[in-house]
Specification:
The protein has 149 residues and is an alpha+beta fold. Helix content is 35%, strand content 16%. The protein is globular, with a radius of gyration of 15 Å. The two termini are 12 Å apart. The C terminus is likely disordered.
């Protein structure tokens, strides 16, 4: 199985100049906890990600104004990415090694074409999400790849 088989295609994105409040509303409207940050909505060239946690820790917890602050000021970079043709086993290993739950998918031109989450993998493979979360969140222990077999 490959990443393309489980990823969410064409995810909603924002740009570095987007306001944090707008990014948060996009997350709420699209029921997601991460937005790929792209150079422009036309190019879709990935430059970072903004997560609900980034907003909580870098904006809300510091009392900053989400309507004035830009995504550039709170986004996470560099970004771990996968290609659509990557093996799903490799994707799981990358998620585990980096302790991340979502990975943007980029094409050869580094254009964002999808995102794969632990929920996508669990849904497509039948893996229990709580077991998957445990393996991704632990720095050591049984490999996620082995628990999918």
């Amino acid at each position: 199985m490959q990443v393309i088989d489980v990823m969410t295609e064409d995810p909603v994105c924002c740009t570095p100049s987007s306001k944090i409040g707008d990014a948060a509303r996009l997350m709420a409207d699209n029921d997601c906890g991460v937005l790929p940050v792209v150079e422009s909505l036309e190019s879709r060239r990935l430059v970072g990600v903004i997560t609900d946690r980034d907003i909580c820790c870098r904006v809300a917890a510091e009392g900053k104004d989400a309507e004035r602050m830009t995504v550039r000021e709170a986004m996470s970079t560099p970004v771990v990415t996968m290609s659509p043709d990557a093996d799903l086993d490799r994707c799981c290993k990358v998620m585990e090694e980096n302790q991340i739950r979502r990975v943007p998918v980029v094409d050869r031109n580094h254009m964002c074409c999808g995102i794969v989450s632990q929920a996508d993998i669990a849904r497509e493979t039948g893996m229990n999400i709580s077991g998957m979360l445990k393996h991704i969140s632990e720095p050591t222990g049984m490999s996620l790849r082995h628990s999918m077999r």
